[in-house]
């Protein structure tokens, strides 16, 4: 009996408009490649559906490695154009054709389950379905460099993917078009409508978040969208099973670090502390490596390394002493780099997590403490880069961004703030510990 539904995930492009050496479908954002994000969107909707992944010939091994946890994925070598890649997938499916096929672009990693559901449901009544949203821009028709006409926007939509079809309807259309004419079309609905002039393509509502990663700016938007989604992560839905885990907390003697230490210990984890008072200046790489080695020996390994150390100097830049600025950067930025470098081997062995701390000022530099804001922005970039760099070793790297928290450093620099307007360090610590217990990576999570 043929399968009811199959997905085709188009990941065969080279992404020439994106100024990257890596084809866009393999670029990592929030800890995963765009291919993985898009694949998970489809597989989570129907784990039993076939998923045909179309990739360039020289990227089959890479794609298989990225999706090694998904044995149901089937891989097909794509063609020289989008439509040639779809046609290759259709040929692959033709030996055991499904009733319906849903085609999505890997460069759209923000596909929602609701959109997939709406497409699949519409296919019960219609043999072709498209996803689209109304355009907010004025559309012009050009001729010889001049405006020929300006159509009313009432019925002008922007097409997205996925697009869904009854398999045999699309199969017949592709057979009729043939290989030679494939480049005349930009999507599968265009192929279908060319061969079915009386056919009706049902439109289902897309989403403004369902963006296609095409240019450099789109990567910036993608980072921000993933950050927003991370902020929507609800710690209360995440368990706190850290029993038997081994953690090293830098800055564990005070503030948020001390709160994290207590929460971990009370939850059954073993914790080692490193701090300036115990002889570890994170600005000194030798001292950091010694602290990591000592904790490894004491605990028999490390599953979590947490860095809560930070230094803040609140003063206009031109009034700050250069040596003081250098010290701040040495602690905040170089200290984070020292800890990451020193902890790599231990975390690779345990497939553990490095948790960095930033500040809400990372998104926009704040007056009177610009070096601090700059260092915290750098930590976010470091986190995202390491999550990608360390993915092959399965080390997870995340960053927590607490809001204004009642700590000694905060009180020393912002006197007079009402305590009831500040977060309690234990609120932040609980979120941090739940993040440690999660499988997330590459995330910048606000508290």
Quick take:
This protein has helices at 34-45, 60-66, 82-93, 113-122, 167-177, 188-195, 216-231, 255-266, 285-299, 322-350, 370-389, 408-413, 425-436; strands at 5-10, 28-29, 32-33, 50-55, 73-77, 100-105, 128-134, 141-143, 146-149, 157-166, 202-205, 246-250, 270-274, 304-307, 353-357, 396-401, 444-446. The chain has 447 residues and is of the alpha/beta class.
Name the descriptors.
single chain; 447 residues; Spore Coat Polysaccharide Biosynthesis Protein SpsA, Chain A; Rossmann fold; 2 domains
Layout of helices and strands:
Layout: E1 5-10, E2 28-29, E3 32-33, H1 34-45, E4 50-55, H2 60-66, E5 73-77, H3 82-93, E6 100-105, H4 113-122, E7 128-134, E8 141-143, E9 146-149, E10 157-166, H5 167-177, H6 188-195, E11 202-205, H7 216-231, E12 246-250, H8 255-266, E13 270-274, H9 285-299, E14 304-307, H10 322-350, E15 353-357, H11 370-389, E16 396-401, H12 408-413, H13 425-436, E17 444-446
Parallel strand pairs: 1-4, 1-6, 4-5, 7-11, 12-13, 12-14, 14-15, 15-16, 16-17
Antiparallel strand pairs: 2-3, 6-10, 7-10, 8-9
């Amino acid at each position: 009996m043929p399968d009811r539904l199959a997905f085709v995930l188009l990941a065969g492009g080279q992404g020439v408009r994106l100024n990257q050496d890596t084809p866009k479908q393999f670029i990592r954002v929030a800890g995963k490649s765009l291919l993985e994000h898009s694949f998970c969107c489809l597989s989570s909707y129907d784990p039993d559906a076939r998923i045909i992944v179309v990739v360039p010939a020289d990227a089959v091994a890479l794609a298989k490695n990225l999706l090694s946890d998904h044995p149901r994925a089937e891989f097909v070598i794509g063609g020289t154009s989008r439509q040639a890649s779809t046609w290759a997938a259709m040929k692959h499916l033709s030996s055991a054709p499904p009733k319906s096929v849903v085609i999505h672009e890997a460069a759209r990693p923000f596909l929602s389950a609701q959109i997939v559901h709406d497409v699949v449901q519409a296919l019960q009544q219609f043999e072709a379905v498209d996803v689209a949203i109304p355009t907010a821009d004025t559309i012009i028709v050009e001729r010889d460099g001049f405006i020929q006409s300006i159509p009313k926007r009432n019925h002008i939509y922007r097409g997205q993917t996925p697009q869904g079809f009854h398999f045999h309807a699309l199969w017949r259309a592709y057979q009729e078009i043939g290989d030679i004419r494939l480049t005349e079309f930009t999507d599968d609905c265009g192929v279908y409508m060319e061969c079915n002039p009386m056919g009706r393509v049902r439109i289902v509502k897309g989403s403004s978040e369902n963006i296609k990663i095409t240019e450099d700016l789109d990567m910036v938007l993608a980072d921000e969208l993933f950050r927003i989604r991370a902020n929507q992560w609800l710690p209360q839905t995440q368990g706190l099973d850290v029993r038997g885990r081994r953690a090293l907390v830098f800055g564990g003697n005070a503030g948020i670090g001390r709160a994290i230490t207590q929460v971990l210990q009370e939850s059954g984890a073993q914790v080692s502390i490193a701090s300036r008072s115990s002889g570890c200046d994170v600005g000194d790489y030798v001292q950091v490596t010694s602290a990591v080695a000592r904790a490894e020996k004491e605990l028999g390994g490390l599953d979590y390394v947490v860095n809560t150390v930070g230094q803040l100097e609140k003063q206009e830049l031109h009034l700050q002493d250069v040596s003081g600025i250098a010290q701040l950067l040495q602690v905040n930025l170089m200290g984070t780099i020292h800890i990451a470098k020193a902890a790599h081997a231990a975390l690779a062995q345990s497939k553990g997590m490095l948790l960095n701390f930033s500040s809400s000022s990372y998104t926009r530099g704040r007056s009177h403490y610009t070096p601090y804001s700059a260092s915290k922005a750098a930590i976010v970039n470091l986190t995202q880069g390491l999550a990608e760099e360390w993915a092959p070793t399965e080390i997870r790297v995340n960053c927590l961004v607490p809001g204004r928290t009642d700590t000694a450093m905060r009180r020393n620099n912002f006197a007079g703030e009402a305590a009831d307007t500040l977060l309690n360090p234990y609120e932040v610590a609980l979120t941090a510990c739940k993040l440690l217990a999660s499988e997330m990576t590459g995330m910048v999570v606000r508290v």
